Structures are given as structure tokens and as C-alpha cells.
Amino acid sequence: MSTADYIFGAFLIGVVVSAVLYGVTFMQTWFYFTRYSSDPWPNRTLVGAVFLSDTIHQALITHTVYTYLVTDFGNVSELQRLVWSLSVEVLFNGFTGFLVQSFFAMRVYHVSNKNLFATAAVMSLVIAEFVIVIAYVAKAVKLTFFTQVPELKHLSMAVNAVAAAGDILITVFLCAFLQRSRTGFHQSDNLINRLMLFSINTGLLTSVCAVMSLISIIVWPDAFIYVAFYFCLGRLYCNSLLATLNVRKTIRHDSSDEPMALSLHRARRPVDSPSSSARMGMPNDISIKITTQEYIEDEFLSAKDVKSSGSV
Questions:
Q1: Which residue has the higher pLDDT, 4 or 290?
Q2: Are 248 and 275 in contact (CB under 8 A)?
Q3: 98 pLDDT exceeds 90?
Q4: Which of 167, 183, 159 has its CA nearest to residue 262?
């Protein structure tokens, strides 16, 4: 392939795929504000901030490709220069990742029963990634030509490596703590299995994208193939957040279809117990039925989103 394929071809493919994913982001954002309009303000603020950052990033990478393929088309000297938007877009991609990974870090905090070690481990990677992103942008905006970009190769590799590590660690912690939450009841254990699978799937996409970007830098250090993957990374983060928020009512509805029941047959109290069934005039057969209408709770749900009823 020619130099144009390695550089501008990768840019074009990245923007096209990213634009498709942005369409999914737009629909998911509209769905969220339509279906979850009563969500707590931190939830709605987070979604709004992530969508705004994602929109700005899409505009920046579109400006980059338009400048190279339309404005400077055929102008060899200008095509060798770095467009400012190509450097700045990294900041907004990193900011989107920072917000989304912080959200999942808070989920780890609550699912782990406020385990500070697990939360600190995740947040250390999240903060480290964003610091590296800022360092990259601070250096990149001072560059003039494409030939200077390899000077930042170590920072590019670090950003993708830390991003993948953070996503993997979040998934491992969520699955581990959910596994420990099993109760032995079919309904709750089945729900936990679904939550674990959902956690794996949402973390897998962003991890794979970051790893592919990292591999591309290592295999083709003088090309810009990795940019195609990095362009899409923020969109995947945004959609993983929105998918997590939008699926809540669906999972709750499914989890309420199978009520849990426990029967203790002919349970007896000691005859000398002051609260024995003989003294209280209670039958020896005890039946307990627990119906869970809405089972899922996380740190961003309001109290009215979590409802349960039980009868004894």
C-alpha cells in the first residue's frame, strides 16, 4: 500500500466507522433521556457530558479528514503537515474514556461493598490514562509534520495499554464481586449470571479496540493504522455506558417473571423456647414466598427504582 493508504486511508476508515457508531450513540442517548427522564441528576449530567464530548470528537476527526481529502487535496506540501484537530481530538477521546471508566469504577465500589482497594486500583489506571492523554496532547500540538509523530510513539502505546488494562481490571472486579454475591436461589443467581455476561461484553469491546490500536503501533510504527482504531474507542466507551444504563428496566422486568419461593416444612422450635410454636399457637409448617419486582440496584438509581415485596 502507498503512504496515502497508511495515513489518509486509515483516517477515512476510522471516521466512517466512528460516524456509524456515533449514530448508535445518538439513538441510545435519545432512548435514555426518553425512558429514564426521572433518573437522578448525576446520571443525566454524566450522559450529557459524555455525549457532548463524543460529539466534539466526531466533529474534530471529520474536520481532519475533510481538510486532508478536500481542502488540501493535491497539495503535497500541505498534506505533510499535521492538522490541529488531529492532535486535539485525542483530548476529547481521553475525556470520554475518563468519564465512562470513572462510572464503572463507582460500580466496582458499590458492587464490592465499598472495597477501597479495588476502587483505588481501578481509579489509579483511569487517572493515569487521562494524565498520559494530556501529556500527549501537550506535546502533539507543538508538532508540525507527520514525520515528527513517531516521537510520541511511547505515549501512544502507553495510552492504549493503560486503557486496555483499566477495562480488563474493571471487568474482572465486577465479575468477581458479582460471583461472591450468589445466594443459591435460581432467580438471583440467574440474574447475576446475566450481569456478569453483560459486564464482560461491555468491557470486551473497548479492551479489544485499545489492544488492536496498540498492536498496530507496534507492527506498523511508521504508519497511522492505529488511528483508525483510536478514532472509534471513544464511541465504544460512550455506547458501553449508555447500554449499561438503558438495559436496567429490561433486566428488572425479566428478573420479576420468576418469583423465588422457599418452603420450610414442619420446622419446629424447642419446646422450652418462650417463642415456640406451641405457646404462640402457630402451625409447624412455615411457607415463605419472596417476589422481587425490581432486583437491580446501583449507585446511580433512585430509591423508587428499587422495589421489592415479600409475603410470609
A1: 4
A2: no
A3: yes
A4: 183
